[in-house]
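Q: Fold this one first, please.
A: Sequence and structure below.
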Amino acid sequence: METASLPDDLETCHGTIRELAASLRKAHRQIEQLGHRLDLLLRRLYGPRSERFDPGQLLLFADGDESEPGISAPAAEPVGETSDPAPPRSVNGHGRKALPSDLPRERRVHEIPPGQQACPECGHERSPIGEEISEQLDYRPASLFVVEHVRIKVVCRHCQGHVEVASKPPQPIKKALPGPGLIAR
């Protein structure tokens, strides 16, 4: 801005300064609003997705005293009134979901080698007491099937000890569902 275009009158200068200050405040306010919106969008894009806040959860830690403002215990329902009971909530289990039962299954039994059947303590032969079953999803051309790896557990009936489980064959990816045919696909 050139000095020749500035007004010589003091009142006009004060008015110009007020206008410039108001437009500067407006620009700062707009920058703050846009920054806030950008933070919200980034939080939605990169923030946690599965965690949701339920205000009722804060009541779990209430000790009967109203120490936190705005948190109150739920009102007790009068005894005389009956309401429809809430449907039972399904409990989501941990771990992976079971493979579909309609897939064909191929059972492969893994037994302890005969040389390891003897009890290391007393020398008697151990007898089977159960089995551990793990499932693995595999692929043959044009079909999926489930391989059930059955590992036989044995115990010495004589000394009631030394439980052993047969080992599984080596897997392409440890503790994973896909079998070698599915990985190769």
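Q: Good. Now the second chain.
A: Here it is, same layout.
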Amino acid sequence: MIALVDCNNFYASCERIFQPWLENKPVVVLSNNDGCVIARSEEAKEIGIEMGAPAFMMKELLAKNNVAVFSSNYTLYGNLSERVQTVLATFTPKIECYSIDEAFLDLSDMKFTTLFKYGFSIRETIRQNIGIPVTVGIAPSKTLAKMANRYAKKTQRHTGVYVLDTKEKINEVLNWTQIEDVWGIGGQHGRRLKWMGIKTAADFLNKLNPDWVRSNMTVVGERMLNELKGIPSIEWEDIVKPKKGICTARSFGKLLTDKKDIQEAVANYASSCAAKLRKQNTCTGQMHVLIQTNVHRTQDKQYARNITLQLPVATNSSAEIIRFALKGLDIIYKPGYNFKKAGVIVMDIVPEKEVQQSLFDQEDRKRDAQLMKTLDKVNTRFGKDLVRFAIQGYARQWRLKQERLSPCYTTDINQVLTIKI
């Protein structure tokens, strides 16, 4: 059996941990630059706040219902996610972190365990140790576990756990789940299947010929069909695969014209990409740099440009990646425009141990590797970007607009929660 543990309204729940008076009150979290709603508590959903809705268009609704509004605090959310994963690892050695708020657990060795009680124990332990409410769905396959989790979230909120351990329960959930809500069914396939009269997961399983599924939905559809039958067919990824591309691209908190400010932003984005490469022990051989104005400001002149640079030797050195990123910016930057966004994307990623060297390489790569190792060690221990390259600056005119940012309670000693007795 496989369990899917899903944190309920994760971002909103993270904010509530340190502000318990928000329990049972509407909470929303906004995207970068406090733009759109990206997370809602159940109470916020009930008053009609839509996912992706622009915050500036809902000021009256938010004020009228006393909605607690927060800027996205990814440092806090990421740390709490790691804590949840650590707790989950105590229940089974085989765990797959599917996303920041979801994880699959292999319960195949729990044959003599009452799975409902085990799922309930997982739920209560995370609530007690971390403070995050979770829902647990348990079933013979990943897809069915996803469906069991959603069923529990919608119909079993009093327990938060549902186990598909009988044919009757499986059939009940298959008939309850709409075809567009099946894991792996995209919008295009969903519309096509509904047009064909396939409205539920049960219809997909019972009415479609397996040969038709394979020829029209490829091997992905065939796996889905097996998963709905309770036959595990989706590969278990307990080891996180290295990313094939890494992107850091953000809108500025305000419009920028001065090249120095944009250089500072691009240098920080490049440094972030380099740090992510080192974390997964890989190097990049190609880089993409982009800048653009705000297309919604019709009163401004518009300009958007990007460039791809081939690196002579694949690298994960912040110094080298920053240097090439700024070289690309020099080529595409044009004065006299109000720029809204910039970004750096690293591609052609290869493992550190498989980098093709060059006879004409002038870099001292052994020294750079040691420097980067020391830089990462210091920044991990004492705080992100405590040690940085001069070009990354401190003015940060480009930083995100985060007017409602909560403290980093768990990662910054200066922002730790204080209690008065």
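Q: Anything worth noting on the second one?
A: The mean pLDDT is 89.
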